[in-house]
Each structure stands twice: as structure tokens, then as C-alpha cells.
Write a structure and sequence with these properties.
mainly alpha, 10 helices, 0% strand, 248 residues
Length: 248
Amino acid sequence: MRHKLKDISYNNTQRIPKEKLFASGYKAMDFTQTVLLTAELIGTFAFAFSGSVVAIQRKLDVFGTIVLGVITAVGGGMIRDITLGAIPPALFHKPVYVIVAAVTSFSIFCLCYFNADALDKVNKGFYAKLLSIMDSIGLGIFTVIGVNAAVYSGYSDHAFLAIAVGAITGVGGGIMRDLLAMRTPVVLHKHVYAVASIAGASIYYILLPLISDSLALLTGACIVIAIRLLASHFQWNLPVANTKKNHE
């Protein structure tokens, strides 16, 4: 029997007992709820940083920078909540994530607005590596949080749904960011972005009933981050159809 999620915030005290989701004897940990909340705040900061830097590179104004940063940070979670039937999405009744994203985006804008050197470094790609790191951290954290939300919505026996929700949570904000910035979403063409998210979501889902929540969360997120950073460093990309004519 499916359980409808009423509150997917990670300080919820009425979560579904793990004994009902997986094998008996699996102990719930209050500490994990704190880890999840902390991880989501870190991911929110990381994605807001990513979105605001893209906005500045695209020469958006202060409002546009804040909007892009916030959308990047909470967009994936909004899609997750709608998919799982959690209406209205958490961002509207738990505004802490929007506030963190907005403050982060505004801070990055002010840094570049009042510091010509910082703006010059952003425009020259100085922040490219840092942007990749922050984007990878956000992707890893939100991927496993998405899987966790699906599991505690009562879909622990639906692997495809849980993994898909995890991937959507991870890449959704970035897709919305890129579309608003009028560029091809990174997930469709660069550095195995979605593949990293799917891999981490799958590992997290497999490990969740076997080891502690915190360790499963950390492992899944680290796998996503590691794949993304390695792909970025070594320029790994999925095959692209060769459009060049082999002969005249």
C-alpha cells in the first residue's frame, strides 16, 4: 500500500518507519534527518552559486541574477514535489531554501558589481573550475535527496520511479537555468551530466536498505560528484553523431 507524502521536509518527525519499507531490523536514525537538512542547504548554496554566475556571464541584472540563482537551486525540488504529489511544493511553505538561494545569488552579484576584478575573472572563465565543482556538489546532493524523498513517499519498491525522481531533482534546476539563459542545457551535451546523476541515484537506492542512511547518502552523492569532476577534468563526453560527410 502506498503512503502519501504529507511533508517531505527533512525535519519531519512522522516519516515512514524503515522497517515497513525494507527488511526488518533496519533502524531509523534521527541524526540522518539533520544530515539531510544540512546537505540540502549546502546543495542549495552550490546551485544558487552556479545559477548566479551563469546569470552574470549572460549580463542579467540583479533581479535576473537572483531569479536564475533561485530557479537553479529549487527548480529540481519543485519538479520532484509535483511528481510525488506534494502540493504545494516545499519551496512555498518552507521558504528557507529560497532565502538561502536568494541571499547567495545577491551576494555573488554584489561581489561582481562592486569588484571589477571579480567580474573580469568571472567573464574570463576564472571561475569555470569553481563553477564546475559547485554544480557537481549540487547535483550530487539533490540527486540522493530526490531518491530519499521518493522512498519516504511510499515508493521504496519502485526502483525506476525513485531513481528517476532523484535524477530529475538533480538536473531539473540546471535545465531550467540553461533554458532561461537561452543556452542548450548542459545535461543534453556535456560531461555525462545526467549519467552521473543516474549512477549516483542507483547506488544510493541499492545501498539504502543495506547500510546506514548517512553512509548511503554520502556514498551516492560522492559518486555523482566524482563522476562529474572526472568527466570535466578529462573532458569525457557521450558519443555524438558525426555530421561531417565522409565523402563528397
